[in-house]
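About this split. The held-out portion is used to measure sequence recovery: a designer receives only the structure tokens and must propose an amino acid at every position. Recovery is the fraction of positions where the proposal matches the reference. Here is one held-out target exactly as it appears in the evaluation file.
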């Protein structure tokens, strides 16, 4: 991870420097001193109109003289409109422009100083790379930048604020790493082993194996797993940062390490993306990391179901009927609607065992949510308006944005089955909603929300603070949500 330092602002003798400038682009303080050292090169760039100071715009001066290798101007937009999100974007675009420098100084003078931790946060999020399997360096994609010194007046406050943000960035990186791993490496057992690493952060971790899940009666989850050679696991993670006996917030994640569709097999084109079908579980592990390292003063339970959805002579067939942990029976009409089967047993277990004050599941559940909301927002489904509002607000403030979708009895009755209590699919219309209605039948009136992250877990194009690939969606939202529960 990019190393961050906050230090007293000063002009370096050599190397690379980034200047954060609001859109009035007046040069004061060290920026003015730098311009003078460069014989007006910064003012001339501003006068050229190439750099407006709009939020997120940049201009780079290469070998500008004065001993410096490069100077990057980064726009902050209107001073009055400066927010954490704008500061993060500035940090991210600065890292893009400084990618080929081993280290650099970012001068955060004036209004930017207050937002220095957010600048660092955006910079770190942008610096993410998943490089494990390249044996040759891709020079174009490579990030040489290893250290970023952020210069400001009175850096102590920024230094004190940084560990909390660093914990969240750690969590986002954990999630991105898990989602990026191929399914031959990240099997259910390997995923469970990585979740066990949370013990080092003070999280208690229990792993349920097949025998334990059979004994409990996790018939819905085990039905999905039975076609794979890989043994399924369920993992329970507990962070007790709140008062003893306080009802926890429960976070539940779909962890299908590969989704072939099973006997209802998917088309070949794009099937490789189904290695990301564990992004909900990865978001829960990332959030637990952020919550524990950030010492969140609240009780949180995380639970993930890890299975591989494969085809074999032992695989579940369309038409099979399974008995879920809740006792309700399910007709499996389509083996590709497996996520809801995995979540059904986890949701019932979580509400029954932990009596949570709120229960939130995350899942790459339906292609239909990508049709509805694209890659910009996750679908939010909730049985509780207060919880829905908290999630939408946490999403807006952190950038993990969601959009609430409707639910209701008219949708619920579409999953009634002729042979069992319910069926796991209900045709194409409203496919994300009927999936959510299915989950709701396993929540037993606990305040519950479901985030369908099928469109937001993976990005084929990068954005500032989020290189293309695994996004880490959900970690920031969940960390914020849980912290807000600590306050009220
Ligand atoms: N994992 C998929 C959903 C998915 C689609 C995730 C695209 C990421 C990107 C899920 O298990 C699935 O296959 N859903 C089916 C449900 C259908 C059979 C009712 C779908 O969306 O087609
Ligand atoms: Mn599927
Ligand atoms: Zn799936």
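Reference sequence for scoring:
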């Amino acid at each position: 991870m990019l190393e961050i330092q906050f230090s007293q602002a000063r002009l370096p003798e050599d190397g690379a420097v980034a200047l954060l400038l609001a859109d009035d682009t007046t040069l004061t303080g060290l920026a003015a001193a730098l311009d003078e050292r460069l014989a007006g090169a910064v003012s001339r760039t501003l006068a050229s109109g190439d750099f407006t100071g709009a939020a997120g715009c940049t201009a780079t001066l290469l070998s500008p003289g004065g001993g410096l290798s490069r100077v990057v101007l980064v726009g902050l937009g209107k001073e009055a409109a400066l927010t954490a999100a704008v500061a993060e974007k500035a940090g991210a675009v600065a890292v893009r422009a400084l990618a080929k420098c081993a280290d650099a100084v970012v001068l955060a003078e004036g209004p930017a100083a207050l937002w220095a931790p957010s600048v660092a946060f955006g910079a770190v999020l942008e610096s993410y790379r998943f490089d494990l399997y390249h044996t040759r360096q891709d020079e174009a994609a490579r990030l040489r930048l290893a250290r970023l010194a952020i210069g400001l007046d009175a850096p102590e406050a920024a230094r004190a604020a940084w560990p909390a943000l660093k914990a969240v960035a750690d969590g986002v990186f954990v999630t991105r790493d898990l989602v990026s791993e191929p399914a031959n490496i990240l099997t259910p057992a390997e995923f469970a082993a990585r979740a066990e690493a949370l013990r080092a952060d003070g999280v208690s971790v229990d792993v349920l194996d097949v025998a334990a899940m059979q004994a409990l009666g996790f018939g819905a989850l085990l039905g999905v797993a039975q076609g794979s050679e890989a043994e399924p696991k369920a993992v329970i993670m507990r962070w007790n940062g709140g008062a003893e006996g306080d009802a926890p917030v429960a976070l539940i994640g779909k962890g299908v390490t590969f989704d072939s569709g099973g006997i209802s097999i998917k088309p070949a084109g794009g099937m490789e993306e189904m290695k990301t079908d564990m992004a909900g579980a990865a978001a829960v592990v990332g959030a637990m990391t952020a919550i524990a390292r950030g010492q969140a003063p609240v009780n949180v339970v995380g639970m993930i179901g890890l299975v591989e959805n494969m085809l074999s002579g032992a695989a579940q067939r369309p038409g099979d009927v399974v008995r879920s942990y809740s006792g309700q029976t399910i007709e499996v009409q389509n083996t590709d609607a497996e996520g809801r089967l995995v979540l059904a047993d986890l949701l019932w277990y979580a509400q029954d065992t932990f009596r949570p004050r709120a229960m939130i599941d995350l899942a790459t559940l339906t292609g239909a949510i990508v049709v509805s909301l694209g890659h910009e927002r996750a679908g939010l489904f909730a049985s509780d308006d207060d919880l829905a509002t908290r999630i939408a607000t946490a999403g807006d403030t952190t950038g993990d944005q969601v959009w609430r979708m409707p639910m209701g009895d008219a949708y619920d009755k579409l999953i009634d089955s002729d042979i069992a209590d319910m069926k796991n699919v209900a045709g194409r219309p409203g496919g994300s909603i009927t999936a959510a209605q299915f989950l709701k039948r396993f929540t037993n009136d606990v305040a519950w929300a479901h985030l369908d992250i099928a469109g937001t877990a993976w990005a084929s194009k990068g954005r500032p603070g989020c290189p293309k690939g695994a996004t880490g969606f959900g970690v920031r939202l969940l960390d914020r949500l849980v912290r807000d529960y600590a306050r009220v």
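Annotator remark: The chain has two domains: 3-154, 166-486.
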